[in-house]
Amino acid sequence: MSDSHLRVGHVSKTFRVGKEPLQALQGVDLTVASAEFVTIVGASGCGKSTLLRIIAGLETRFDGEVRHDGRPIEGPSLDRGIVFQEPRLFPWLTVEQNVALGLENAPLDAAAKRRVTAEHIALVGLAGFEKAYPRQLSGGMAQRVAIARSLVNRPGVLLLDEPFGALDAMTRAHLQEELQRIWKHERITAVLVTHDVDEAVLLGDRVVVMAPRPGRIAEIFHVTAPRPRDRKDPELLRLRNAVLDALEATQRGAPNLSAPTRLEPQQRPRERASGVPLAARSV
Hints:
Blueprint: E1 6-17, E2 20-32, E3 37-42, H1 48-56, E4 63-68, E5 71-72, E6 80-83, H2 95-100, H3 110-123, H4 139-151, E7 157-161, H5 169-186, E8 189-194, H6 197-203, E9 206-211, E10 216-222, H7 234-252, E11 270-273, E12 276-277
Parallel strand pairs: 3-8, 3-9, 6-7, 7-8, 10-11
Antiparallel strand pairs: 1-2, 1-4, 4-5, 9-10, 11-12
């Protein structure tokens, strides 16, 4: 397995708001190993969703480079599945038809497509709902369909943009557990963007904290708690508090939106393990 399955190299992105430039990302460097689960947290407007769209190939005008298995990402690909906050299902299609859409361009015959579709519907716990329409599903069930559709091509990377943000707390907690199970089963590389620090710590092998205006990586935390994880684990609770402290520090250092942003040279983000500076760890 490659040590840098996914490589984001000094990525910067500037939008125009009216006649003024707005730098959304500045000098973002990040590597993700094969089968690693990386979560990204940050305040609204820190560029984390923009970064995910660049990795997905949905945003192609930026400075720097992004590589997947050594190849430049220049547009969308079946090698990278993406799940958004909204399920984005076609209301006139059944569950199995929505999932099967992900195989429309796959080099499989009809029988193989039916088999793979059924396998992924079962993987997300929706066996028996193949003929149901989106209007007949709960929000959590609809999001499971979206996850199945993103995985049905067996992509190398799964990208998730706040996939549980619109769900109630109990459904969100249940789907977090389901996502851990699916990730373990598929052994897929995953990058998840979220506002939920508890979710980031529970799911991630590493938690990337982004600072806003311009968006950049402020700190990276390594999550050493064993899997499967218990959200009541004291180690996770300590790490949650450390991530919250890091987020608060990025807010204190954020420039006023009404004032011009002075761009400082990119600094290498600090990395910690379970909230403890790496320099303090025994080797």
